[in-house]
Design a protein that fits this description.
Oligomer: single chain
Helix content: 25-40%
Strand order of the largest sheet: 1-2-3-4-5-7-6
CATH class: Alpha Beta
Structural class: alpha+beta
Strand content: 25-35%
Number of helices: 7
CATH topology: Aminopeptidase
Number of strands: 7
Radius of gyration: 16 Å
Bound molecules: coenzyme A
């Protein structure tokens, strides 16, 4: 389920932490995150240990099929009573690997896992309004805009708005049968499709 014909979503191993820290320190990445903090290896290890005990978060590495880390993605604020969760921390580490459709594959796998395995009723995310690429990516999968969070983050000396996008399980199952997701999942799981495996 957490695998296509070119990527896998797997658990984070301690050995992945330095690479993840380097991605989080990339200005092209943190400009789209709410915060940037220089993080020591000790702080990272503490975060890693803490999240292992936290059932409200699933933090994953995106890897190629050999298991080599190429990015991250997370599902968090998992609320089992209300069957909802947020997702994000979406990063493809190598800028050269971006814009080649891997982000869309990650999104398809996260949607399938959230609604067909975690049995969520609602999946939502917050995206800074200037991140047009990611907003367009989510909308193409059927995420709907629920509202604007005004002045939600202080970025580069000024306040920035964020948008909330969400999908319900009923909307997911329509996408799953007739939307972009249906086509993508069929292609992604088709072993005859060689479509440039991630290096
Ligand atoms: C966000 C990220 C994971 C997306 O992955 P990606 O592999 O680059 O994305 P894809 O190639 O799958 O493209 C996804 C969609 O983005 C949209 N897109 C691409 N470039 C765009 C641009 N310049 N402007 C607007 N939309 C754009 C397209 O809709 C594309 O869909 P398509 O398949 O119909 O072309 C990756 O770019 C990244 O790591 N960025 C830096 C970190 C970041 O911004 N994280 C998100 C924080 S919310």
């Amino acid at each position: 389920m957490l695998k296509s014909n070119r990527i896998k979503l797997r658990a984070i191993e301690e050995g992945d932490l330095p690479l993840i820290a380097s991605w989080r320190s990339d200005p092209q990445v943190y400009e789209y995150f709410y915060e940037f903090l220089p993080i020591s290896s000790r702080q990272q290890k503490n975060w890693f240990e803490k999240q292992l005990q936290d059932s409200s978060e699933i933090n994953l590495v995106v890897s190629n099929l050999s298991g080599i880390a190429i990015g991250t993605v997370s599902i968090y604020h998992i609320d089992r009573r209300n069957r909802k969760a947020e997702w994000g921390r979406l990063i493809i580490g190598d800028p050269a690997a971006r814009s080649g459709g891997i982000g869309a594959e990650i999104e398809a796998l996260i949607l399938q896992y959230s609604f067909e395995h975690l049995n969520l009723h609602k999946l939502y995310c917050e995206v800074l309004v200037e991140n047009e690429k990611v907003i367009s990516l989510h909308k193409k999968f059927g995420f709907r805009e629920e509202g604007i969070l005004r002045d939600h983050a202080f970025k580069a000396g000024k306040y920035a708005d964020a948008i909330i996008l969400a999908m319900l399980d009923s909307e997911y199952f329509v996408q799953r049968t007739e939307g972009r997701l249906a086509t993508m999942l069929a292609r992604m799981h088709d072993s005859s499709d060689s479509h440039g495996a991630a290096q």
